[in-house]
Amino acid sequence: MFASYLLSGWIVASLVAFAAGFTGFFVVLRRESFAAHALPMAAFPGAAAAALCGVAQWPGLLVAALLGVALLFWLKRGQRRDAATALALVALLGLGALFLSLSGRYANAVYGLLFGQIFASSPADIPPALALAVLVPMALLMFFRPLLLGALSPDFTAGGAKGDVLFLIILALTASFALPVTGALLVFSLMTGPPGAACTLAASPRTGLMLSVVLAVALIWSALALSAATGWPAGFFTGVLAALLFLAARMWRRARQAPQLPGPA
Amino acid sequence: MSLAVSGLTVRLGGRDVLREVSFSLAPGAFCGLIGGNGSGKTTLLRTILGFQRQAAGRVERPQTAGYVPQKLQIAADMPVRARDLVELGFSSPRFFFPLPSAKRRQRVDEILAATGALGFANQRVGELSGGQFARVLIAHALAGDPRLLLLDEPLANLDLRAAAEIVALLRKLAARGVTILVSAHDMNPLLGAMDHVVYLANGRAASGPVAEVVRTEVLSALYGYHIDVIRVHGRVIVVAGERGVQAHGPEHVVAIP
What we know:
The complex is a heterodimer of chains A (about 260) and B (about 260).
Chain A: H1 4-29, H2 33-53, H3 57-77, H4 81-103, H5 106-115, H6 126-142, H7 144-152, H8 162-182, H9 184-201, H10 205-230, H11 234-257
Helix pairs in contact in A: 1-6, 1-8, 1-9, 1-10, 2-3, 2-4, 2-5, 2-8, 2-9, 3-4, 3-8, 4-5, 5-8, 6-8, 8-9, 9-10, 9-11, 10-11
Chain B: E1 3-12, E2 15-25, E3 30-34, H1 41-49, E4 56-60, E5 65-68, H2 82-88, H3 102-114, H4 130-142, E6 148-151, H5 160-175, E7 179-184, E8 196-201, E9 204-208, H6 210-213, H7 216-223, E10 227-232, E11 235-240
Parallel strand pairs in B: 3-7, 3-8, 5-6, 6-7
Antiparallel strand pairs in B: 1-2, 1-4, 8-9, 10-11
């Protein structure tokens, strides 16, 4: 299906989608879509700073995303968290733009970091992606019960913030590894579209999680195939297919539920 | 003793929400925790559970305690059925969410049957009625096999019939030896079921058998204001007296025309 030079891109994208399917399930359940949007944004200047210093992207992304977690958490405690968080994100984006501009690789790098360069992945990107695809599902499966209970109500887990911090760190990890593949703007679609559809369709949490992972991988494969066939960017297909998938799931559930509604007497 | 609270003081934001609260409950007791909004009912329950730290005093309770939080809302788009919520209540294993097994399923079915929730076991919790949801929350709390069950306003927002059914269910559990501590702002649905009452006002508590606590002198002393306790047809009405009126004996209770 793909030429050999596309193979590493395909492998990296599959691994990232696998991890994103796991993380995304909890993103949707815990209603952390905003954080799933914000953390890739926070990671963006990290990658830009790495480009400026001429070092590898992963460490820069990871450090910046973890700083983003600390920032989100700190802002959450304040009163005006939405406005403050939005402004912090804008400031970080601007910082990233500055770093990239200083690095002298502005246009190309911005495009890659924001919209993804799946086919630019090299075999060297496979080990970190593999580590992500092993570590993130392991962590999420281990804390499945407390994370799920916390998603239902903080009162089930003593209202502590431990679960929140843990989850945001896992989210930051996923975001920073997925960012170079799908881009900062589209990691988000991978972590909300397939899991959102899975939560709508699945009966139980277990099937929901499995369906979320299957749909995320299927989504990235479809996006890659369509991109290879048309020459259009894979990011475009990721975003549009994620939205369509969610829409289709909602319509399917509504259609299935409709006859069960009590009719007029 | 199943639950013993002594000299409990809890401070929140520089204010004593609870001041030297003491009471104890025998195994299988059915105790109402009565008080108005902001009287510290939730704080007391959370302190007993260990979710909230006390400034002073002791709590002795069984290792396993079940908790039904108040005002819980679960969205209908959560892929969590009634039986899943009950299964999440199993205290072991603490982590992971093991693959379904016949044994776990059977245990879930038993708990659902005992709480009258088997009929809607496969519905999403977000789609249940208030009374059904209350049963499932109790089933979730029972999954850990607790000797003490704490419920925070489980009857709020329930219609009269659903409330009576939940009270009957709690009574059945108490008869099996589970100590019940249930908070409510209105004690009437619990009258006839509860054998013990903890009445909270001004951060302080009066506790004991219902007939000893729910009296004009006791509640007036607790509120520091004249309170009339009126009993009509087996119901209790607690009303604030007129300004300046001193607390008198029960013979001064005002009759309703």
